[in-house]
Amino acid sequence: MDFTGREDGVSDAQQALKHYVGVFDPKTGKLEVVEAKRMVVRGVVRAKQASEEAMTAPADYQSYYALKTDLGQTFGTRKAKKAIEAVTLNAIDPNKGQEDAPRKLNVADRATLEEIGGITATMATREQLQAAVDQAKPVPRANMEADAIQDVYDPDEIIGREVLAAVPVKDWTEPTKKGEDVQVFSRHVAERVKKTVDSGNLDKVRLLRYFYFLFLFHTMAQPGRQRGTKRVPPRDKLKERFAPAPQAVIEHIRRKFSDGGEIRKYHSDLLITHCLAIACIIDNFEVDTSRLREDLRLEQKEINSYFYEIGARIKPVSNSKEKAKGEKSRTHYVAKLALPLQFPKLRSVAPKRR
């Protein structure tokens, strides 16, 4: 904007009216009074002068052939596009050296390569991406430096020594030693209580009881408000079903496999993979998946994928007893943990073919 100012005329009625402006100086403490004349100020839009570049029409760098090629790439048939690509690939490069001499890079090429190098220098490698994916997976932490398979998933690490020590087993061991059956809701657990107690290995009995607590926590959960989530059962119901488990064990399971009373898919996957790792430890790292699949309410394909996530191998096995009777044998699947563990790899997506 351009502003113009002029002194305004004073009417006869305002001859005696004057305006003053006071200017106070804080340093000296003096006040200076100056007469202020009445002014009329008007603003005018300033004319903008365009630059020479803006007023100059852009040069037409595209030749007729370039325009034709562009149209062919956009609207041409597949055959036409292929022909254009062939011409482009076989074009003579003015920067190419004679015979087998290396191509000479111009300033623009070198600048482009430097820019690409600066960007790719900070990019994660495939190994770093794989490590980040493995770290974020809902699986028990495996000791990848272990030399023996029993050291890969250490119960003291994936569960906690204090928690395992607090798991009650007396109400299982005493009836079993008397020849009485222990009533449980899991077929997988029911088939292993006597065998595990008879082995005399109390650590495995505690592991089996902890597995049973996880199974109860998984099956007692009700559908949540949001799709794909479940609600943690009330504390009194958990205490009743987990009895005689101490409150420390119940709270440990609540905190580890839920968040704010809600079980999301991450927590559900984490619980299932813990169950499978514990089942492998109890069965000496080779376990039949049929009862596990039924107890955890999974399809065979689903439980196989969970076993793959903890590094196990799956192999089909036919039932020899049914075969001996002449019956049609059903295929059972056995999961085996052995070194080296085989984990699913990060898949790379192939670019779309044009």
UniProtKB/TrEMBL annotation:
Signal peptide: none
GO cellular component, one term: nucleolus
GO biological process assignments: DNA-templated transcription
Keywords: DNA-directed RNA polymerase, Nucleus, Transcription
Entry GO MF terms: DNA binding
InterPro entries: RNA_pol-assoc_fac_A49-like
Record's subcellular location: Nucleus, Nucleolus
Pfam families listed in its UniProt record: RNA_pol_I_A49
Major place of residence: nucleus
Domain of life per record: Eukaryota
Family designation: Belongs to the eukaryotic RPA49/POLR1E RNA polymerase subunit family.
Protein name: DNA-directed RNA polymerase I subunit rpa49
Naturally occurring in which organism (per UniProt): Colletotrichum spinosum
Organism ancestry: Eukaryota, Fungi, Dikarya, Ascomycota, Pezizomycotina
